[in-house]
Amino acid sequence: MKIKLLFVVISLSLIFSCKDESVKVIPPQKIKVYKVTTKTVPIYEEFVGQVFGEKDIPIRARVEGFLDEIHFLEGSNIEKGKLLYVIDPDPQKEAVAAKQSMVAQANTLLIQKESDLNRIKPLAALDAVSKRELDMAQAQRDAAISSLKAANADLNIAKINLSYTRILSPIDGIIGRTLAREGEFVGKNPNPVILNTVSDISNIRVQFFLSENEYLRIAEKYSKAQRDSTEGAEVKKIAVELYLSNGNLFNQKGLLDFIDRNIDTSTGTILVQATFPNPDKIIRPGQFVRVKVKVMDLQDALLVPQKCLIELQGQYSVLIVNKENKIETVQVVIGEKIPGYTIIKSGIKSGDQLILEGLQKAKPGLVVIPVVTEYKNQSTKK
Length: 382
What we know:
With 382 residues, this protein is an alpha+beta fold. It is 28% helix and 38% strand.
C-alpha cells in the first residue's frame, strides 16, 4: 500500500514538472515600423489632353478648278515655299487676259479724254466754248482715270487668282495625307476645299479641360506667379509634365501658358493649354496624353505609406507602437493620395511609429520591439 502511494506521488510530481517546463514566456518580437515625419508635399493632378502642333495650317484651294498636279510625298517634311498643288490655271489665265484688255480699253479712253480736255482748255480761255463744256471735259477725263484704276484693280485680282492655282507651303513642317487627288474638282463645296494640313511640331500644344473647382486651384497658383513677377519681367509659368498613352513620362517639361477667358456653361469646364518642346518630333497632333500639373505645396503634411492603412467599411485606421512598445489601433482621416503614400489629416502626429509589415500578425496590446525602417515605394520605381 505504501509503495503504491509513493508511486502516485512521484507520478504526479513528474506530470506537474513537465507542464511547468512546457509553459514558456515568448520574448517581444522585432517588428518593422515607419516613423511619421512632417514634410512639404507637392500635390499633383492629372488631366487628359489632346495634342496640337505649334502651328496646324490647313492648305486650302482658294480658287476652284480641277487639280492637275501634286508635288510632295505624304507625311514628309517640307520647307516653307515648296510647291504642293497645281490647280488647272487655264481659266485664270483667260481671266487675266480679259482684264488686260479692259485695262487697254480704259487706257485708250483716258488718252482720248485727255486729248479732248487739252483742246477745250485754250478755247475756254478765249471764251470760244462755254464753261459748261470745259467742266464736262474735265469730268470725263477724271472718270476715265477712275475707270483705268478700276480696270487695273480687276487685273490685279485676276493675277492673284492665277497665283492661287499654285499652292505653296506657308511654313516649315510635316504635311499630312492629301484629301484630293489629281483630276478631282476642288475649291467649291461639296468638293474638297481643304486639301491638306501642314503642322510645325518642333513644339506642341496640349489642350485639356478643368472643372470649376480644379480651375480655381490652378488659377490661384497661376495668379500668384503673375503677382510675384517684377514689373516688365516675363511671368514665371507653371511647369507641367506629360505622360504618353503607353504610360511613359515624356522627357521634356512643359509650361502652362494659356487659360481661356470663360467657362463653358454647357459643360462647366474651362480650356487650359500647355506647350512642350518636341525636338525629336515623336509626339504628333491628335494624340491623347495625360498632363500632370502641380496645384499646390502642402506644408507640414503627415505622409504615410499606403500599406500601413487598414480599411474597414470606408473607415481607415493604423497600428502604432506606443511609448510602452505596445501595439494599439488608431482611427485616422485620410487626405490626398500620391503614388505609394497617403496624406493623413488627423489621428496621428509626427514621431508616431506605424507598423509597416506584418499587420496580420500584429495584435493590439502585444509588446514588440520596434525597428524603424526606411520605406521604399515600389510604385515609383522605373
